[in-house]
Amino acid sequence: MALFCVLVWGISYAVIRETVQQIPPLTLACLRHLFGALLLWPLTRGRFGARRMPLKHHFAICGLALAGITLYFGFENHGLKLTSASHGALLIALIPLGTEIVTALQKRRLPTAATWLGTVLALTGVALLVGQQDGVADPEGDLLMLGAVASWIAYTFGVNRFAGRYPGLLLTRQIMFYGALTLLPGMVWELARTPYIFPTAGAWIGFAYLTVICSVVGYDFWNRAVPNLGPSAVNNLLYLLPLVGVVTGVLALNEPVTPTLFSGGGLILGGVILAGRGQRTRARESCHAG
After folding, report:
1. Taking the CB of residue 237, how many other CB atoms lie within 10 A of it?
2. Counting C-beta atoms within 10 Å of the first and last residue's C-beta, which end of the chain has fewer, N or C?
3. From residue 13, how far is each of 76, 136, 157, 214, 290 by CA, in Å?
4. Mean pLDDT of the chain
5. Which has more confidence, 176 or 262?
6. Cα–Cα distance for residue pair 181/126, rounded to 1 Å
7. What pLDDT, on a 0 to 100 scale, did the predictor assign at position 235?
8. In 3D, which of 58, 87, 115, 122 has the Cα closest to residue 283?
């Protein structure tokens, strides 16, 4: 399930970049998750009935939606309107590294030497990418993508603490619904100041792909995978996202392949993989010690 998410989400960077040129970023995010929640509603009602949640759980789920949908897609959609799909996918690869650092802080232990070295390599790669202007990528868009990284890390840890209390599909529906509600004011503001242009058929196909495949199926699969694999293990699979994203951007959008893209992307991926191996080594040592 997590690998399926990696594939379809990797392709989504190119889809989002094209779609937000016609549908404004916050509007796209709001409608995508509103329709996603509506599609899930009859399915969850038939499978789980009218299951009630305590009020405090609704507030907690609203917080998850704020991090994983409102903030994440606010940053990502605006970022991909300004920068390339390749840059966006490579910067999102920082999520596993950030997850390892947060995990270490939660457990009140210092990150491993491999994590520190991986962090230095990855940040060097980020500096190379953010400083590049190739006619498609833009530093402002790259910085917005870093905001999406922070939002998704917060969301993943929140889901891990909350997911076991309700079926994954039901939790996905509620997160998407509250995400759409919290995005609604932004959509109204955006439409009030954006000249209206009716989207083309290609934009609607992109919207359908993002809604059904990436949001409905993808979020359900992700929310099932996180409690089974744990935040660190499942987020480590995200280092495959940039490979899919870069290939899609180059082949589908004719984005330029530059030396900076290779060197910056290589440093980011190398740092993430190195940090992940360091954490797995520590975990094995802890098991043997036990």
Report:
1. 16
2. C
3. 9, 14, 23, 11, 43
4. 84
5. 176
6. 33
7. 65
8. 115
DSSP 69: I
What backbone torsions phi and psi does residue 136 show, to the nearest 5 degrees?
-120, -50
The rounded distance, in Å, linking the Cα atoms of 151 and 117 is: 24
pLDDT in tens, 223-265: 778 778 877 677 667 667 788 888 899 889 888 888 888 888 8
Q: Sorting pLDDT into bands at 50, 70 and 90, what band is 281? A: low
Whether residue 275 contacts residue 119, with contact meaning beta carbons closer than 8 Å, is answered with: yes
Q: How far is Cα 106 from Cα 18, in angstroms, rounded to an integer? A: 39
5-49 per-position pLDDT tens digit: 989 999 999 999 999 999 999 999 999 999 999 998 887 877 777
Q: Which amino acid is at 121?
A: L
Distance (Å, whole) CA 125 – CA 271: 9
Q: State the Cα angle at 238 between 170 and 211, rounded to 5°.
A: 45
Report the sign of the C-alpha dihedral through residues 164, 170, 176, 182, in that order.
Answer: negative
Find the DSSP H helices in 2-84: 2-19, 25-48, 55-65, 72-82
| 3-state SS string for 182-227 | HHHHHHHHHHHHCCCCCCCHHHHHHHHHHHHHHHHHHHHHHHHHHH
pLDDT in tens, 75-133: 999 999 998 898 888 888 888 788 888 888 888 777 778 888 888 888 888 888 876 66
Q: Which two tokens stand for residue 134?
A: 């190739």
Give percent helix, percent strand, percent coil of the chain, each to the nearest 5.
Answer: 85, 0, 15
Distances in Å between the Cα of 269 and the Cα atoms of 77, 94, 97, 263, 272 are 23, 8, 10, 10, 5
From CA 162, how far away is CA 182, in angstroms rounded? 20
Return the structure tokens found at 31: 């409608």
**DSSP conformation class of 240:** G
